[in-house]
Write a structure and sequence with these properties.
- It contains 5 helices and 7 strands; from the N terminus they run βαββαβααβαββ.
- The chain has 228 residues and is an alpha+beta fold.
- The chain has a single domain, classed as Muramoyl-pentapeptide Carboxypeptidase, domain 2 (2-Layer Sandwich).
- β6 and β7 form a beta hairpin.
Length: 228
Amino acid sequence: MAPDEFVDLADVDSTIWTDMRYAKERNVVGVPLDGYVDPICVVTCAAAKALSKAQTALSGSGYSLQVLDGYRPVRAVRHIIRWAHDLDDQRTKPVFYPQVEKERLFTDGYLHQWSSHSRGSTVDVTLVTSEGLPVDMGSTFGGFGARSRTLHAGIRADQRARRLYLKRTMERAGFVNLPEEWWHYTYRTESFPDVYFDFPVSRLSLRRVVTDVPPIPSGAIPQQRSGE
């Protein structure tokens, strides 16, 4: 069960588009990751409200936010690590790491043993049109390589402009960008800066259990009110 600070982003701002890539096959591993049960964006409430602020700032620009990942269970991170150590599995290399050798993913700093996503206040985001159509950000989301760097010099001017627009919008809402990944943002005042969670990404994880209702005395029959 998730702590009460976690929410489904759609319950805070349903105007933000989502495409939860790690709940599907369209990611670097090529299969849904362990722990992704439902294709929903789970984040801390503080991060969700900040995302809503960023979305409001985009109003009238022709763009909208699209979230591609939010909270990521530790078990999902372990799944990625197992995949990275399986050097025979190169199925996704042409799309996600064409210029990088898989055996160097850890050495070159593309992968780590822990992910800030597991703390609940990190999101992967991109820009889409107001209608939810993709726009060119200069490289594949979730890919490994130099072009993933936010300020990579080799991308076109229009691609760079979109990255910088996203960066300004997210920073003004309280997020910090990871320079190596144009899509990766962490809410500056994290709710759990030192805690890594492992509950599944699911609607069931977010169900709240009511614990403050007094028990009915043994043998008592509650009276039904008229109209109930």
